[in-house]
Amino acid sequence: MENFAGVGVSPGRVIGPVRHMPMPVSEPPAGERHDTPDAPEQAVAALKVASKAVQEELKRRAGIAKGDGKAVLQATSLMAADPMLLKSAAKLINNGMSPARAVWEAGASVAEMLHNLGGYMAERTADVLDVRARIVAELRGLPAPGIPASDTPFILVAEDLAPADTATLDPGVVLALVTSGGGPQSHTAIIARSLGLPAVVAATGVEGIDSGTLVFVDGAAGTIALNPGSDEEAAAEAYRAAAAALTVFGGVGVTSDGHAVPLLANVGGAKDAVKAAEAKAQGVGLLRTEFCFLERETEPTSEEQIEAYKGVFDAFPGKKVVVRTLDAGADKPLPFLTDSSEPNPALGVRGYRTDFTSPGVLERQLKAIADAASQATADVWVMAPMISTAEEAADFAKLCSNAGLQTPGVMVEVPSAALMAEAILGEVSFASLGTNDLTQYTMAADRQLGSLAALNNSWQPAVLRMVKLTVEGSAAEGHEKPVGVCGEAAADPALAVVLVGLGVSTLSMTPRALAGVGAVLNSVTLAEAQRIAGLAVAARTAAEARDRARAELPVLESLGL
Ligand code: PEP
Ligand code: MG
Questions:
Q1: Which residue's alpha carbon is at the smallest distance from atom 9 of ligand 1?
Q2: Residue 174 near residue 197, CB atoms below 8 Å
Q3: What is the 436 CA–ligand 2 centroid distance (Å)?
Q4: What architecture does CATH give domain 263-559?
Q5: Could you report the per-residue pLDDT of 351-400, keeping only the tens digit for each?
Q6: Three-state secondary structure string covering 493-561
Q7: What does the alpha-carbon distance between residue 293 and residue 328 come to, in Å, rounded to a whole number?
Q8: What is the pTM of this model?
Q9: CATH architecture classification, 40-140
């Protein structure tokens, strides 16, 4: 039996046939002409047939899709028959251009026009570009781009997934995700965890697996085995049974000896918050406010902001909700705040630093958060992303206080903040460790790069030492401030135990992870967690830290985690 190995980023064991993500559609050559110059109407008719076929297929898929995916597919299906798109393409065809090139150019013009209109219309730009690629694929007889449509379950193999692809990912049909690129903190990994799908990233060579081949994916071990036998079938069956039992979180995060560790949710808006409350999260540990306004060309108005934040607060009456101010930049560009031409965006003007270049936006956001908080009963805490110095922490605390917000905090995701935790925590009320960025900056490894996945691993002892330093700084003489974790590390049950052992007071994660983390945490005493943390921090490598911790937590194996 042949095996492939990568980095396991979302646990679970499943067997299924492989389907590959089709190659992106390439641009038809400029100047490509159709072959019926005397009868351009035939070429126009071919375009119409192709656009109709694309529309019908998208409509069919919208009919069976659920949630966000349904809305995305409906919007795209309308765009496929857009009269403006077809009319401008027909004009180009009448001048001799091939239907594929014509729809490509017409799509570009429509996209540019929508982009210039701004607001809601600008957000449709991606739909037009998606539709033109689908029409070109149809005209060329190539597979449609995006996640393959299928009525039977499969394991999706891709180089990496774009955010737009994942919007149409149906977890009822996709059994697991395997990528040859992508890192543990990549978009694919975060989505897989939020959907509860087993996933392996950075698995070199998987592009070569024949479509339809039956494989066994182990999302905890990070392995893919071809042509599984009875052992793998038994493991997949055992996981199915364990997963069914592990879907419910009791609503209280606590060690077996009664040490409380509230388990909170990471959310991107009101819809997520409602789901998180249903999953019994004890509050929100990270509201990524930039997710409410991604791709916006202009600063959201105060009314829009109040509505977005209040929707989250109302899902958690009387409970803690930690709002993070806009974390724009690098992998999350907000066109009204960030400069896409920066040579090195992860080290550039992102997060709190946008206050240097666009003063006023942060103050207006804090005011909107305070206004929304005054209309709700949630216990609202506010934190700034990418804080690097004690001066920045002090300035942020002042802005919060001016806005009438009582509980200011910082994210610790830059190594300087971990090293200076004592001084920084002297200025604010709490800290939250953003282990995704803290890992990328400690290891100097882009979190989106599959080729650096081994470095970009929060089990790296250097990262664990950063966590330890931060907690020690928070407990310095004169003040005792809570330190939570809201990076993906908190969603890994074994790593969660290590973090609690290091002194972290809350863990915030995708709601899907609550039950698993809750169960494993409840299987150890605080003293055991501290001992396991000691073993992990003293390890020489990430693999050794992980193996040492997992060896002390046999419950993981029995829960299939
Ligand atoms: C982090 O960096 O760990 C974090 C929680 O922030 P984000 O993933 O949104 O950058
Ligand atoms: Mg971050």
A1: 288
A2: yes
A3: 6
A4: Alpha-Beta Barrel (3.20)
A5: 999 999 999 999 999 999 999 999 999 999 999 999 999 999 999 999 99
A6: HHHHHHHHHCCCCEEEECHHHHHHHHHHHCCCCHHHHHHHHHHHHCCCCHHHHHHHHHHCCCHHHHHCC
A7: 10
A8: 0.76
A9: Orthogonal Bundle (1.10)
